[in-house]
Design brief:
Layout (H helix, E strand, L loop, with lengths): L3 E5 L7 E13 L10 E4 L5 H6 L4 E2 L4 E13 L8
Antiparallel strand pairs: 1-5, 2-3, 2-4, 2-5
């Protein structure tokens, strides 16, 4: 926990993370939405005002990165993830 990881298109996110830096990242969160398609763009929060407009910098364990690449900080692993 606290490690910085690289995320890129085609990979499964290995842990619950918060996006620190990235470009054009979209994630398929179908795993958390009863297997229906749920493609979510992820944006970096740049302070309180920006967070209100773009409140979802979170990457959830086992979701699929569809596009883009970036860096994220690990928040939870294993049974402590939302999936676990």
């Amino acid at each position: 926990v606290g490690d910085v990881i690289l995320v890129e298109a085609g990979m499964r996110v290995p842990a619950d993370c918060i996006l620190l830096d990235g470009m054009d990242i979209t994630i398929d969160e179908a795993l958390y939405n009863e297997d229906r398609e749920c493609i979510v763009p992820k944006l970096i929060s740049k302070g309180e005002e920006h967070h209100r407009e773009n409140p979802d910098p979170f990457l959830l364990a086992r979701t699929l990165v569809l596009t883009g690449s970036g860096k994220a900080i690990v928040c939870a692993v294993g049974k402590h993830t939302r999936y676990g």
